[in-house]
Amino acid sequence: MKLKQIIKQTAVAATLALALGLGQSAEAKTFRWAYQGDMMSLDPMSLNETFTLGLQGWFYETLAAYDKDLKLVPQLATKWENPEPTKWVFHLREGVTFHDGSPFTADDVIFSWQRSLTQGSDMKGYGAKASDVKKIDDHTVEVTTPEPNPILPRDWTFMYIMSKAWAEKNGTTEASNVKGGENNYAAMHENGTGPFVIVDRQPDVKTTLKRYDGYWGKDIPTNVTEVIFQPITQESTRVAALISGEMDLVMPVPVQDWPRLESEPNVEVLNEPEARAIFIGMDQHRDELLFSNIKGKNPFKDKRVREAIDLTVDTRVINKKIMRDAAKPLGTLIADKINGYDESFGKPYDTDVEKAKKLLADAGYPDGFTVQLDCPNDRYVNDEKVCQAVASMLARIGIKIDLLAQTKSKYFAKILLQAGNNTSMYMLGWTPSSGDAANSLKNLVGCRDDKTASGQFNLGGYCNKEIDALIGKIEVETDQALRNNMIKEAFTILRNDYGYVPLHQQPMSWGVRKGIKVAQRADDVLDIRSVVMP
Protein backbone atom coordinates (compact mmCIF):
# COMPACT_ATOMS: atom_id res chain seq x y z
CA MET A 1 0.00 0.00 0.00
CA LYS A 2 1.34 3.46 -0.90
CA LEU A 3 2.46 5.75 1.93
CA LYS A 4 0.15 8.54 0.80
CA GLN A 5 -2.85 6.26 1.06
CA ILE A 6 -1.86 5.14 4.56
CA ILE A 7 -1.42 8.76 5.68
CA LYS A 8 -4.78 9.71 4.22
CA GLN A 9 -6.56 6.81 5.96
CA THR A 10 -4.90 7.66 9.27
CA ALA A 11 -5.90 11.30 8.96
CA VAL A 12 -9.58 10.55 8.45
CA ALA A 13 -9.81 7.77 11.06
CA ALA A 14 -11.20 10.12 13.71
CA THR A 15 -14.17 11.09 11.51
CA LEU A 16 -15.08 7.59 10.37
CA ALA A 17 -17.50 6.86 13.19
CA LEU A 18 -19.69 9.84 12.37
CA ALA A 19 -19.44 9.24 8.63
CA LEU A 20 -20.74 5.74 9.12
CA GLY A 21 -23.60 6.71 11.41
CA LEU A 22 -22.07 5.32 14.57
CA GLY A 23 -23.35 7.90 17.01
CA GLN A 24 -22.41 11.32 18.26
CA SER A 25 -18.88 10.51 19.35
CA ALA A 26 -16.05 10.47 16.83
CA GLU A 27 -13.78 8.69 19.31
CA ALA A 28 -11.53 6.10 17.69
CA LYS A 29 -12.22 2.57 18.86
CA THR A 30 -9.27 0.18 18.69
CA PHE A 31 -10.10 -3.51 18.88
CA ARG A 32 -7.23 -5.78 19.94
CA TRP A 33 -7.55 -9.50 19.52
CA ALA A 34 -5.47 -12.64 19.30
CA TYR A 35 -5.73 -16.06 17.72
CA GLN A 36 -3.53 -19.11 18.24
CA GLY A 37 -1.97 -18.70 14.78
CA ASP A 38 -1.70 -16.20 11.97
CA MET A 39 -3.62 -16.08 8.72
CA MET A 40 -1.44 -17.75 6.15
CA SER A 41 -1.67 -15.13 3.41
CA LEU A 42 -3.56 -12.05 2.27
CA ASP A 43 -4.22 -13.78 -1.07
CA PRO A 44 -7.85 -14.98 -0.83
CA MET A 45 -7.19 -17.93 -3.13
CA SER A 46 -4.03 -19.28 -1.56
CA LEU A 47 -5.50 -21.45 1.21
CA ASN A 48 -8.94 -22.92 1.81
CA GLU A 49 -8.73 -22.66 5.59
CA THR A 50 -11.59 -21.19 7.60
CA PHE A 51 -9.57 -18.90 9.86
CA THR A 52 -7.56 -17.40 7.00
CA LEU A 53 -10.65 -16.98 4.83
CA GLY A 54 -12.65 -15.55 7.71
CA LEU A 55 -10.10 -12.86 8.45
CA GLN A 56 -9.71 -12.08 4.75
CA GLY A 57 -13.45 -11.33 4.78
CA TRP A 58 -12.68 -8.12 6.65
CA PHE A 59 -11.07 -6.65 3.54
CA TYR A 60 -12.36 -8.84 0.68
CA GLU A 61 -16.01 -9.63 -0.06
CA THR A 62 -18.12 -12.14 -1.96
CA LEU A 63 -21.32 -12.03 -4.00
CA ALA A 64 -23.38 -13.50 -1.16
CA ALA A 65 -22.32 -13.84 2.46
CA TYR A 66 -23.47 -15.11 5.85
CA ASP A 67 -24.93 -13.02 8.62
CA LYS A 68 -24.39 -13.78 12.30
CA ASP A 69 -26.91 -16.65 12.14
CA LEU A 70 -25.36 -18.16 8.97
CA LYS A 71 -28.30 -16.90 6.97
CA LEU A 72 -27.40 -16.11 3.36
CA VAL A 73 -27.53 -12.37 2.65
CA PRO A 74 -26.57 -10.13 -0.28
CA GLN A 75 -23.10 -8.64 -0.30
CA LEU A 76 -21.50 -7.62 -3.62
CA ALA A 77 -24.57 -8.98 -5.38
CA THR A 78 -27.90 -7.39 -4.44
CA LYS A 79 -29.96 -10.31 -5.72
CA TRP A 80 -29.73 -13.47 -7.81
CA GLU A 81 -31.97 -15.90 -9.62
CA ASN A 82 -31.79 -19.37 -11.10
CA PRO A 83 -33.74 -19.05 -14.39
CA GLU A 84 -32.55 -22.41 -15.74
CA PRO A 85 -31.18 -25.50 -14.01
CA THR A 86 -27.63 -24.67 -15.11
CA LYS A 87 -27.87 -20.86 -15.13
CA TRP A 88 -27.54 -18.34 -12.31
CA VAL A 89 -27.80 -14.59 -12.80
CA PHE A 90 -26.21 -12.25 -10.24
CA HIS A 91 -27.10 -8.56 -10.13
CA LEU A 92 -24.10 -6.66 -8.79
CA ARG A 93 -24.12 -3.81 -6.33
CA GLU A 94 -23.47 -0.42 -7.93
CA GLY A 95 -21.32 2.31 -6.42
CA VAL A 96 -18.85 -0.10 -4.80
CA THR A 97 -15.15 0.74 -4.94
CA PHE A 98 -12.01 -1.20 -4.17
CA HIS A 99 -9.63 0.22 -1.59
CA ASP A 100 -7.59 1.91 -4.33
CA GLY A 101 -10.72 3.82 -5.39
CA SER A 102 -11.39 1.88 -8.61
CA PRO A 103 -14.96 0.71 -9.33
CA PHE A 104 -16.17 -2.85 -8.83
CA THR A 105 -17.72 -4.32 -12.00
CA ALA A 106 -18.63 -7.59 -13.68
CA ASP A 107 -15.11 -7.84 -15.10
CA ASP A 108 -13.77 -8.32 -11.56
CA VAL A 109 -16.18 -11.20 -10.91
CA ILE A 110 -15.13 -12.96 -14.10
CA PHE A 111 -11.45 -12.40 -13.36
CA SER A 112 -11.77 -13.69 -9.78
CA TRP A 113 -13.50 -16.85 -10.95
CA GLN A 114 -10.77 -17.44 -13.54
CA ARG A 115 -8.04 -16.76 -10.95
CA SER A 116 -9.57 -19.35 -8.59
CA LEU A 117 -8.78 -21.98 -11.20
CA THR A 118 -5.09 -21.08 -11.65
CA GLN A 119 -2.27 -23.42 -10.72
CA GLY A 120 -1.48 -22.12 -7.23
CA SER A 121 -5.10 -21.71 -6.15
CA ASP A 122 -6.49 -23.68 -3.24
CA MET A 123 -10.00 -22.60 -4.26
CA LYS A 124 -10.32 -24.68 -7.41
CA GLY A 125 -13.18 -26.62 -5.88
CA TYR A 126 -15.12 -23.37 -5.64
CA GLY A 127 -14.24 -22.22 -9.14
CA ALA A 128 -15.11 -25.60 -10.60
CA LYS A 129 -18.73 -25.00 -9.61
CA ALA A 130 -18.97 -22.92 -12.80
CA SER A 131 -18.11 -23.83 -16.38
CA ASP A 132 -18.45 -20.23 -17.56
CA VAL A 133 -19.08 -16.75 -16.19
CA LYS A 134 -20.35 -14.24 -18.76
CA LYS A 135 -20.76 -10.48 -18.54
CA ILE A 136 -24.27 -9.26 -19.37
CA ASP A 137 -23.44 -5.67 -18.51
CA ASP A 138 -21.17 -3.89 -16.01
CA HIS A 139 -23.37 -4.96 -13.11
CA THR A 140 -24.82 -8.29 -14.22
CA VAL A 141 -23.13 -11.67 -14.69
CA GLU A 142 -24.51 -14.98 -15.88
CA VAL A 143 -22.96 -18.10 -14.39
CA THR A 144 -23.22 -21.41 -16.19
CA THR A 145 -22.74 -24.53 -14.09
CA PRO A 146 -21.61 -27.90 -15.50
CA GLU A 147 -24.72 -29.46 -13.97
CA PRO A 148 -27.70 -28.10 -12.05
CA ASN A 149 -26.54 -26.62 -8.74
CA PRO A 150 -29.31 -25.66 -6.32
CA ILE A 151 -26.95 -24.02 -3.79
CA LEU A 152 -24.39 -22.08 -5.88
CA PRO A 153 -24.69 -18.81 -3.87
CA ARG A 154 -23.87 -20.79 -0.73
CA ASP A 155 -21.04 -22.60 -2.49
CA TRP A 156 -19.43 -19.25 -3.26
CA THR A 157 -19.59 -17.62 0.18
CA PHE A 158 -15.77 -17.74 0.30
CA MET A 159 -15.16 -16.90 -3.37
CA TYR A 160 -13.71 -13.45 -2.79
CA ILE A 161 -13.76 -10.83 -5.53
CA MET A 162 -10.46 -9.19 -6.49
CA SER A 163 -9.73 -6.22 -8.73
CA LYS A 164 -8.76 -7.34 -12.22
CA ALA A 165 -6.91 -4.09 -12.98
CA TRP A 166 -4.99 -4.18 -9.67
CA ALA A 167 -3.97 -7.81 -10.13
CA GLU A 168 -2.77 -7.20 -13.68
CA LYS A 169 -0.89 -4.05 -12.66
CA ASN A 170 0.93 -5.89 -9.88
CA GLY A 171 1.60 -9.16 -11.69
CA THR A 172 -0.60 -11.23 -9.44
CA THR A 173 -3.16 -12.70 -11.85
CA GLU A 174 -2.39 -16.20 -10.57
CA ALA A 175 -2.99 -17.34 -7.00
CA SER A 176 -0.11 -17.62 -4.54
CA ASN A 177 0.83 -21.23 -3.87
CA VAL A 178 1.44 -20.70 -0.16
CA LYS A 179 1.51 -24.43 0.57
CA GLY A 180 4.22 -24.85 -2.04
CA GLY A 181 6.26 -22.06 -0.48
CA GLU A 182 5.53 -19.56 -3.25
CA ASN A 183 4.28 -16.03 -2.73
CA ASN A 184 3.37 -13.16 -5.02
CA TYR A 185 2.23 -9.56 -4.57
CA ALA A 186 -1.26 -10.52 -3.37
CA ALA A 187 0.18 -12.61 -0.55
CA MET A 188 1.39 -9.45 1.24
CA HIS A 189 -0.92 -6.77 -0.19
CA GLU A 190 -4.69 -6.43 -0.48
CA ASN A 191 -7.15 -4.38 -2.49
CA GLY A 192 -10.64 -5.51 -1.59
CA THR A 193 -14.03 -3.89 -1.14
CA GLY A 194 -14.45 -4.73 2.56
CA PRO A 195 -14.91 -2.39 5.54
CA PHE A 196 -11.26 -2.50 6.62
CA VAL A 197 -7.92 -1.83 4.94
CA ILE A 198 -4.63 -3.41 5.99
CA VAL A 199 -2.11 -0.68 6.80
CA ASP A 200 0.64 -2.84 8.29
CA ARG A 201 1.37 -6.53 7.91
CA GLN A 202 4.07 -8.34 9.87
CA PRO A 203 3.46 -12.09 9.39
CA ASP A 204 3.38 -14.06 12.63
CA VAL A 205 3.79 -10.82 14.61
CA LYS A 206 1.06 -8.23 14.07
CA THR A 207 -1.45 -7.02 11.50
CA THR A 208 -3.05 -3.58 11.72
CA LEU A 209 -6.26 -2.60 9.94
CA LYS A 210 -8.07 0.72 9.63
CA ARG A 211 -11.64 1.50 8.67
CA TYR A 212 -12.12 2.12 4.93
CA ASP A 213 -13.88 5.47 4.56
CA GLY A 214 -15.21 4.58 1.12
CA TYR A 215 -16.99 1.41 2.23
CA TRP A 216 -20.41 0.96 0.62
CA GLY A 217 -22.09 -0.61 3.68
CA LYS A 218 -22.88 2.38 5.87
CA ASP A 219 -25.22 0.49 8.21
CA ILE A 220 -22.95 -2.26 9.58
CA PRO A 221 -23.16 -2.33 13.41
CA THR A 222 -19.47 -2.05 14.29
CA ASN A 223 -18.02 1.14 15.77
CA VAL A 224 -14.44 -0.14 15.51
CA THR A 225 -12.09 2.18 13.63
CA GLU A 226 -8.83 0.27 14.10
CA VAL A 227 -7.98 -3.40 14.57
CA ILE A 228 -4.71 -4.77 15.91
CA PHE A 229 -4.46 -8.52 15.43
CA GLN A 230 -1.67 -10.58 16.99
CA PRO A 231 -1.13 -14.33 16.77
CA ILE A 232 -0.31 -15.72 20.23
CA THR A 233 0.62 -19.39 20.14
CA GLN A 234 0.94 -20.06 23.85
CA GLU A 235 -2.42 -20.74 25.49
CA SER A 236 -1.39 -19.33 28.87
CA THR A 237 -0.06 -16.14 27.28
CA ARG A 238 -3.27 -15.66 25.33
CA VAL A 239 -5.42 -16.06 28.43
CA ALA A 240 -3.17 -13.77 30.48
CA ALA A 241 -3.43 -11.08 27.78
CA LEU A 242 -7.22 -11.23 28.01
CA ILE A 243 -7.32 -11.09 31.82
CA SER A 244 -4.88 -8.18 31.93
CA GLY A 245 -6.93 -6.18 29.43
CA GLU A 246 -4.16 -6.21 26.83
CA MET A 247 -6.54 -8.05 24.50
CA ASP A 248 -10.25 -7.46 23.95
CA LEU A 249 -10.89 -10.93 22.53
CA VAL A 250 -8.84 -14.12 22.26
CA MET A 251 -9.61 -17.37 20.51
CA PRO A 252 -9.56 -20.15 21.26
CA VAL A 253 -9.56 -20.25 25.02
CA PRO A 254 -8.41 -23.61 26.44
CA VAL A 255 -11.47 -25.51 27.61
CA GLN A 256 -9.76 -26.26 30.91
CA ASP A 257 -9.49 -22.51 31.59
CA TRP A 258 -13.23 -21.85 31.39
CA PRO A 259 -13.84 -21.99 35.19
CA ARG A 260 -10.96 -19.61 35.85
CA LEU A 261 -12.16 -17.08 33.26
CA GLU A 262 -15.75 -17.26 34.46
CA SER A 263 -14.54 -16.08 37.87
CA GLU A 264 -12.85 -13.02 36.37
CA PRO A 265 -15.06 -9.91 36.77
CA ASN A 266 -14.13 -8.32 33.42
CA VAL A 267 -14.12 -11.39 31.18
CA GLU A 268 -16.71 -13.77 29.77
CA VAL A 269 -16.45 -17.02 27.83
CA LEU A 270 -18.40 -17.62 24.62
CA ASN A 271 -18.73 -21.33 23.88
CA GLU A 272 -21.50 -21.99 21.39
CA PRO A 273 -21.27 -25.30 19.43
CA GLU A 274 -19.31 -25.05 16.20
CA ALA A 275 -20.31 -26.48 12.84
CA ARG A 276 -16.86 -28.09 12.48
CA ALA A 277 -16.13 -31.81 12.56
CA ILE A 278 -12.67 -32.98 13.68
CA PHE A 279 -11.35 -36.30 12.40
CA ILE A 280 -8.31 -38.43 11.62
CA GLY A 281 -7.57 -39.45 8.04
CA MET A 282 -5.46 -42.38 6.80
CA ASP A 283 -3.46 -42.77 3.60
CA GLN A 284 -5.40 -45.38 1.63
CA HIS A 285 -3.95 -44.41 -1.74
CA ARG A 286 -0.27 -45.30 -1.72
CA ASP A 287 0.79 -48.93 -2.00
CA GLU A 288 3.32 -48.31 0.77
CA LEU A 289 3.00 -45.79 3.59
CA LEU A 290 5.56 -42.99 3.66
CA PHE A 291 6.03 -43.04 7.41
CA SER A 292 5.68 -46.57 8.80
CA ASN A 293 7.75 -49.62 9.66
CA ILE A 294 5.59 -51.72 7.32
CA LYS A 295 7.27 -51.99 3.94
CA GLY A 296 5.88 -53.23 0.64
CA LYS A 297 2.23 -52.75 1.56
CA ASN A 298 -0.22 -50.34 3.13
CA PRO A 299 -2.12 -51.51 6.22
CA PHE A 300 -4.77 -48.80 5.80
CA LYS A 301 -5.93 -50.33 2.52
CA ASP A 302 -7.32 -53.20 4.60
CA LYS A 303 -10.81 -52.44 5.90
CA ARG A 304 -10.14 -54.63 8.97
CA VAL A 305 -7.29 -52.34 10.04
CA ARG A 306 -9.43 -49.23 9.63
CA GLU A 307 -12.26 -50.83 11.59
CA ALA A 308 -9.84 -51.80 14.36
CA ILE A 309 -8.75 -48.18 14.69
CA ASP A 310 -12.33 -46.89 14.80
CA LEU A 311 -13.22 -49.45 17.46
CA THR A 312 -10.23 -48.39 19.59
CA VAL A 313 -10.38 -44.60 19.52
CA ASP A 314 -12.91 -43.73 22.22
CA THR A 315 -14.33 -40.33 21.30
CA ARG A 316 -16.46 -40.22 24.44
CA VAL A 317 -13.38 -40.47 26.64
CA ILE A 318 -11.63 -37.76 24.62
CA ASN A 319 -14.65 -35.54 25.12
CA LYS A 320 -14.70 -36.16 28.86
CA LYS A 321 -10.97 -35.99 29.60
CA ILE A 322 -9.68 -33.54 27.00
CA MET A 323 -12.69 -31.46 25.98
CA ARG A 324 -14.34 -31.25 29.43
CA ASP A 325 -17.64 -32.54 27.99
CA ALA A 326 -17.86 -29.47 25.73
CA ALA A 327 -17.58 -31.33 22.42
CA LYS A 328 -20.06 -33.67 20.75
CA PRO A 329 -18.54 -37.09 19.91
CA LEU A 330 -19.15 -37.99 16.27
CA GLY A 331 -19.13 -41.03 14.03
CA THR A 332 -19.09 -39.05 10.79
CA LEU A 333 -17.50 -36.06 9.02
CA ILE A 334 -20.25 -33.48 9.49
CA ALA A 335 -21.56 -31.73 12.59
CA ASP A 336 -25.21 -31.80 13.58
CA LYS A 337 -25.60 -28.18 12.42
CA ILE A 338 -24.97 -29.16 8.80
CA ASN A 339 -27.83 -29.90 6.41
CA GLY A 340 -27.99 -33.65 5.82
CA TYR A 341 -26.75 -34.77 9.24
CA ASP A 342 -28.55 -37.79 10.65
CA GLU A 343 -27.91 -39.53 13.95
CA SER A 344 -28.10 -42.91 12.21
CA PHE A 345 -24.64 -42.34 10.73
CA GLY A 346 -23.54 -39.52 13.03
CA LYS A 347 -23.40 -41.32 16.37
CA PRO A 348 -19.90 -42.38 17.50
CA TYR A 349 -18.66 -45.94 17.05
CA ASP A 350 -18.90 -48.20 20.08
CA THR A 351 -15.42 -49.12 21.29
CA ASP A 352 -14.35 -52.77 21.42
CA VAL A 353 -10.62 -53.17 21.98
CA GLU A 354 -10.65 -56.98 22.01
CA LYS A 355 -12.43 -57.13 18.68
CA ALA A 356 -9.99 -54.56 17.34
CA LYS A 357 -7.02 -56.72 18.34
CA LYS A 358 -8.55 -59.71 16.55
CA LEU A 359 -9.20 -57.64 13.42
CA LEU A 360 -5.57 -56.52 13.36
CA ALA A 361 -4.36 -60.08 13.81
CA ASP A 362 -6.67 -61.33 11.04
CA ALA A 363 -5.30 -58.61 8.77
CA GLY A 364 -1.75 -59.87 9.38
CA TYR A 365 -0.62 -57.39 12.05
CA PRO A 366 -0.84 -59.30 15.36
CA ASP A 367 1.90 -57.11 16.83
CA GLY A 368 0.56 -53.91 15.32
CA PHE A 369 2.78 -51.46 13.45
CA THR A 370 4.27 -47.99 13.64
CA VAL A 371 2.95 -44.96 11.77
CA GLN A 372 3.45 -41.21 11.92
CA LEU A 373 0.46 -39.03 12.83
CA ASP A 374 0.59 -35.40 11.64
CA CYS A 375 -1.19 -32.95 13.91
CA PRO A 376 -1.36 -29.16 14.22
CA ASN A 377 -0.74 -27.59 17.61
CA ASP A 378 -2.35 -24.21 16.92
CA ARG A 379 -5.36 -24.81 14.70
CA TYR A 380 -8.16 -26.66 16.50
CA VAL A 381 -9.35 -26.70 20.11
CA ASN A 382 -6.86 -28.81 22.13
CA ASP A 383 -5.59 -30.30 18.87
CA GLU A 384 -2.24 -31.65 20.09
CA LYS A 385 -3.78 -33.00 23.31
CA VAL A 386 -6.42 -34.84 21.28
CA CYS A 387 -3.74 -36.38 19.05
CA GLN A 388 -1.82 -37.48 22.12
CA ALA A 389 -4.97 -39.18 23.43
CA VAL A 390 -5.50 -40.95 20.09
CA ALA A 391 -1.90 -42.17 20.19
CA SER A 392 -2.33 -43.50 23.72
CA MET A 393 -5.51 -45.36 22.78
CA LEU A 394 -4.04 -46.96 19.65
CA ALA A 395 -1.08 -48.22 21.67
CA ARG A 396 -3.54 -50.61 23.36
CA ILE A 397 -3.80 -52.62 20.12
CA GLY A 398 -0.13 -52.36 19.20
CA ILE A 399 -0.33 -49.41 16.79
CA LYS A 400 2.55 -47.18 17.84
CA ILE A 401 2.07 -43.54 16.88
CA ASP A 402 5.01 -41.30 16.04
CA LEU A 403 3.30 -37.98 16.74
CA LEU A 404 4.50 -35.00 14.73
CA ALA A 405 2.74 -31.90 16.07
CA GLN A 406 3.66 -28.63 14.38
CA THR A 407 2.46 -25.08 13.93
CA LYS A 408 -0.23 -24.96 11.26
CA SER A 409 2.00 -23.27 8.66
CA LYS A 410 4.43 -26.21 8.71
CA TYR A 411 1.62 -28.73 9.19
CA PHE A 412 -0.40 -27.66 6.14
CA ALA A 413 2.79 -27.27 4.10
CA LYS A 414 3.42 -30.98 4.73
CA ILE A 415 0.07 -32.70 4.40
CA LEU A 416 -1.98 -30.92 1.74
CA LEU A 417 -2.11 -32.11 -1.85
CA GLN A 418 -0.46 -29.06 -3.40
CA ALA A 419 2.35 -29.34 -0.87
CA GLY A 420 3.11 -32.93 -1.81
CA ASN A 421 0.69 -34.77 0.49
CA ASN A 422 3.54 -36.08 2.66
CA THR A 423 1.45 -37.79 5.29
CA SER A 424 0.37 -41.27 6.31
CA MET A 425 -2.10 -40.26 9.00
CA TYR A 426 -3.36 -36.80 9.87
CA MET A 427 -5.82 -34.71 11.88
CA LEU A 428 -8.14 -32.36 10.01
CA GLY A 429 -11.18 -30.26 10.81
CA TRP A 430 -13.85 -29.30 8.30
CA THR A 431 -16.72 -26.83 8.25
CA PRO A 432 -18.57 -26.92 4.91
CA SER A 433 -18.73 -23.30 3.77
CA SER A 434 -22.11 -23.97 2.16
CA GLY A 435 -23.59 -25.36 5.39
CA ASP A 436 -24.52 -28.43 3.35
CA ALA A 437 -23.21 -32.00 3.54
CA ALA A 438 -22.53 -32.12 -0.21
CA ASN A 439 -19.53 -29.86 0.38
CA SER A 440 -17.95 -32.34 2.80
CA LEU A 441 -18.69 -35.29 0.55
CA LYS A 442 -17.20 -33.57 -2.50
CA ASN A 443 -14.06 -32.31 -0.76
CA LEU A 444 -13.31 -35.03 1.78
CA VAL A 445 -14.83 -38.24 0.43
CA GLY A 446 -15.02 -37.93 -3.35
CA CYS A 447 -12.36 -39.77 -5.37
CA ARG A 448 -9.57 -37.33 -6.18
CA ASP A 449 -10.01 -35.83 -9.63
CA ASP A 450 -8.26 -32.63 -10.77
CA LYS A 451 -10.67 -32.11 -13.66
CA THR A 452 -13.76 -31.97 -11.46
CA ALA A 453 -11.89 -30.63 -8.40
CA SER A 454 -13.27 -33.56 -6.42
CA GLY A 455 -11.41 -34.76 -3.35
CA GLN A 456 -9.29 -31.61 -2.98
CA PHE A 457 -9.01 -32.30 0.77
CA ASN A 458 -9.32 -36.07 0.58
CA LEU A 459 -5.73 -36.29 1.76
CA GLY A 460 -5.88 -40.02 2.40
CA GLY A 461 -7.05 -40.80 -1.13
CA TYR A 462 -10.14 -42.70 0.01
CA CYS A 463 -12.18 -43.71 -3.05
CA ASN A 464 -15.53 -45.50 -3.23
CA LYS A 465 -17.20 -45.48 -6.64
CA GLU A 466 -20.64 -46.05 -5.12
CA ILE A 467 -20.29 -42.92 -2.99
CA ASP A 468 -18.85 -41.03 -5.95
CA ALA A 469 -21.95 -41.81 -8.00
CA LEU A 470 -24.15 -40.57 -5.16
CA ILE A 471 -22.14 -37.34 -4.87
CA GLY A 472 -22.80 -36.64 -8.54
CA LYS A 473 -26.54 -37.07 -8.02
CA ILE A 474 -26.62 -35.07 -4.77
CA GLU A 475 -24.95 -32.08 -6.41
CA VAL A 476 -27.69 -31.69 -9.03
CA GLU A 477 -30.79 -32.80 -7.10
CA THR A 478 -33.14 -29.91 -6.34
CA ASP A 479 -35.63 -31.93 -4.26
CA GLN A 480 -34.33 -31.50 -0.70
CA ALA A 481 -35.89 -34.69 0.65
CA LEU A 482 -34.32 -36.78 -2.12
CA ARG A 483 -30.98 -35.01 -1.60
CA ASN A 484 -30.99 -35.79 2.10
CA ASN A 485 -31.85 -39.43 1.48
CA MET A 486 -28.85 -39.75 -0.84
CA ILE A 487 -26.63 -37.88 1.63
CA LYS A 488 -27.67 -40.37 4.31
CA GLU A 489 -26.90 -43.29 2.00
CA ALA A 490 -23.45 -41.92 1.13
CA PHE A 491 -22.43 -41.29 4.73
CA THR A 492 -23.79 -44.68 5.80
CA ILE A 493 -21.59 -46.40 3.21
CA LEU A 494 -18.60 -44.37 4.43
CA ARG A 495 -19.35 -45.28 8.04
CA ASN A 496 -19.58 -49.01 7.24
CA ASP A 497 -16.36 -48.78 5.21
CA TYR A 498 -14.48 -47.14 8.12
CA GLY A 499 -13.01 -44.61 5.71
CA TYR A 500 -12.08 -42.11 8.45
CA VAL A 501 -11.66 -41.87 12.21
CA PRO A 502 -14.30 -39.32 13.27
CA LEU A 503 -13.65 -37.58 16.58
CA HIS A 504 -16.05 -34.81 17.53
CA GLN A 505 -17.86 -31.60 16.80
CA GLN A 506 -15.71 -29.11 18.65
CA PRO A 507 -17.02 -26.20 20.69
CA MET A 508 -16.13 -22.65 19.85
CA SER A 509 -14.14 -21.23 22.73
CA TRP A 510 -13.71 -17.46 22.78
CA GLY A 511 -12.79 -15.17 25.63
CA VAL A 512 -14.00 -11.57 25.42
CA ARG A 513 -13.80 -8.46 27.57
CA LYS A 514 -17.15 -7.70 29.17
CA GLY A 515 -19.06 -4.89 27.53
CA ILE A 516 -17.98 -5.83 24.01
CA LYS A 517 -20.75 -7.16 21.80
CA VAL A 518 -19.73 -9.78 19.25
CA ALA A 519 -21.62 -12.40 17.24
CA GLN A 520 -20.23 -15.93 17.58
CA ARG A 521 -20.95 -17.50 14.21
CA ALA A 522 -21.27 -21.29 14.15
CA ASP A 523 -18.52 -21.54 11.53
CA ASP A 524 -16.09 -20.02 14.11
CA VAL A 525 -15.59 -16.91 11.99
CA LEU A 526 -15.21 -13.59 13.76
CA ASP A 527 -16.86 -10.98 11.52
CA ILE A 528 -15.62 -7.50 12.42
CA ARG A 529 -18.90 -6.05 11.15
CA SER A 530 -20.62 -7.37 14.29
CA VAL A 531 -18.13 -6.10 16.88
CA VAL A 532 -19.40 -3.17 18.98
CA MET A 533 -17.18 -1.71 21.67
CA PRO A 534 -18.34 0.24 24.76
CATH topology of the largest domain: Dipeptide-binding Protein, domain 3
Tell me which CATH architecture of the largest domain applies here: Roll
Number of helices: 19
Secondary structural class? alpha+beta
Helix content: 25-40%
As residue ranges, the low-confidence spans are 1-25
CATH class of the largest domain: Alpha Beta
Backbone CA Rg:
23 Å
Classified in CATH, the superfamily of the largest domain is Dipeptide-binding Protein, Domain 3
What's the β-strand tally? 19
Task: Report what the structure shows.
- This protein has 534 residues and is an alpha+beta fold.
- It has three domains: 1-38 and 204-272 and 509-534, Periplasmic binding protein-like II (D-Maltodextrin-Binding Protein, domain 2); 43-183, Dipeptide-binding Protein, domain 1, CATH 3.90.76; 274-507, Dipeptide-binding Protein, Domain 3 (Dipeptide-binding Protein, domain 3), CATH 3.10.105.10.
- Helices cover 29% and strands 20% of the residues.
- The chain has 19 helices and 19 strands.
- The chain has helices at 3-12, 16-19, 50-56, 106-115, 124-127, 152-155, 164-169, 185-188, 235-244, 258-262, 303-312, 315-321, 343-346, 353-362, 383-394, 408-415, 437-445, 465-476, 480-497; strands at 30-35, 64-66, 72-74, 77-84, 87-92, 132-137, 140-144, 196-202, 206-211, 226-231, 249-251, 267-270, 273-282, 328-329, 369-376, 399-406, 425-430, 501-507, 510-513.
- A seven-stranded mixed β-sheet has the order 8-9-10-1-11-19-12.
- The radius of gyration is 23 Å and the shape is globular.
